[in-house]
From TrEMBL:
One of its GO terms (molecular function) is unfolded protein binding. InterPro entries: GrpE, GrpE_CC, GrpE_head. It comes from Periconia macrospinosa. It is found in: Mitochondrion matrix. Signal peptide: none annotated. Transmembrane segments: none annotated. Residues 54-76 have a biased composition (Basic and acidic residues). Keywords: Chaperone, Mitochondrion. Belongs to the GrpE family. One of its GO terms (cellular component) is PAM complex, Tim23 associated import motor. It comes from the Eukaryota. Essential component of the PAM complex, a complex required for the translocation of transit peptide-containing proteins from the inner membrane into the mitochondrial matrix in an ATP-dependent manner. This is GrpE protein homolog.
Length: 233
C-alpha cells in the first residue's frame, strides 16, 4: 500500500498540481481503524512484589533523632575512655617521678655515706691509737704527789685532742660506743664476741670487757665492738 501511494504521488507530480481531497485518504483510515478494532486487547501482569509503602515523615524524623542520640552516646563513651586513659597515664607519670626523686635521694645519700665511710675507716685507726696512748698512762702516775707535771700536761693535751676529734666526728655522723661500762646485752649485729667466760654476779650474755671499741656511722655499724661475753651456764 505504501508503494502504491508513492507511485500515485510520482504520477501526480508529473501532472499539474491539484489539491488532494481529504476524502482520498478515507479508505486508508478506515482500513487502519478496522485492523485496530480487530486486534484483541492485551494486558500485562507483573510478578514482582509490590513496593513497600513510604514511611511517614514522623517516623523518618524519629529514626534520625535516634541515630543522632546513639552517635552522641558513642562519642561520649569514647571521650570518657580517653579521659580515664589520660588520668591513668598522668598518675603513673607522677608516681614514677616521685619514685625517681626518692631513689635519687637515696643514691645521693648512699654515695655521701660511702665516701665518708671510706674516710672514717681510715680515721678510726688513728682514734684507736690515740685511745691506746691515753690508756697506757696509769691514773696513779697523774696524781700530784708523784710530781710529774710534764706527764700530766701531755696527758691533758692528748685528752683534749681526743675530745675535740670525737666531737668533730660526731657532727659528721661518726660515733664511738663502748658496751662494757653499761653491761650491754650481746648483740651480734653490733658486737663481736672475742671470748666467753664465767663471771660471778653477772647475767649471761652481757658484755663485761671491751677489747676494741665500735663505731657507728649515721646509725649503721661501721665497725663492731670486740667484747668479752659472760657465760655462766
Amino acid at each position: 500500500m505504501f508503494q502504491r501511494t508513492i507511485l500515485r504521488a510520482s504520477r501526480q507530480a508529473a501532472r499539474p498540481v491539484q489539491r488532494i481531497q481529504p476524502a482520498a485518504f478515507a479508505p486508508i483510515r478506515q482500513q487502519a481503524g478496522t485492523r485496530a478494532a480487530a486486534a484483541p486487547a492485551i494486558r500485562w501482569y507483573s510478578d514482582a512484589a509490590p513496593a513497600p509503602e513510604a514511611k511517614p515523615k514522623e517516623d523518618a524524623a524519629e529514626a534520625t533523632k535516634d541515630d543522632g542520640a546513639a552517635q552522641s552516646k558513642e562519642q561520649l563513651e569514647k571521650k570518657d575512655k580517653e579521659i580515664i586513659d589520660l588520668k591513668d597515664k598522668y598518675l603513673r607519670s607522677v608516681a614514677d617521678y616521685r619514685n625517681l626523686q626518692e631513689r635519687t635521694k637515696r643514691e645521693i645519700s648512699a654515695a655521701k655515706d660511702f665516701a665518708l665511710a671510706r674516710f672514717a675507716r681510715d680515721l678510726v685507726e688513728s682514734v684507736d691509737n690515740l685511745d691506746r696512748a691515753l690508756s697506757t698512762v696509769e691514773p696513779s702516775k697523774l696524781a700530784p704527789e708523784n710530781n710529774n707535771p710534764d706527764l700530766v700536761t701531755l696527758h691533758d693535751g692528748l685528752k683534749m685532742t681526743e675530745r675535740i676529734l670525737m666531737d668533730t666526728l660526731k657532727k659528721h655522723g661518726l660515733e664511738r660506743f663502748d658496751p662494757s661500762p653499761n653491761a650491754d646485752k650481746f648483740d651480734p649485729n653490733v658486737h663481736e664476741a672475742v671470748f666467753m667466760t664465767k663471771m660471778e654476779g653477772k647475767e649471761d650474755g652481757t658484755c663485761f670487757h671491751t677489747q676494741q671499741k665500735g663505731f657507728m656511722l649515721n646509725g649503721r655499724v661501721l665497725r663492731a665492738a670486740k667484747v668479752g661475753v659472760v657465760k655462766n651456764a
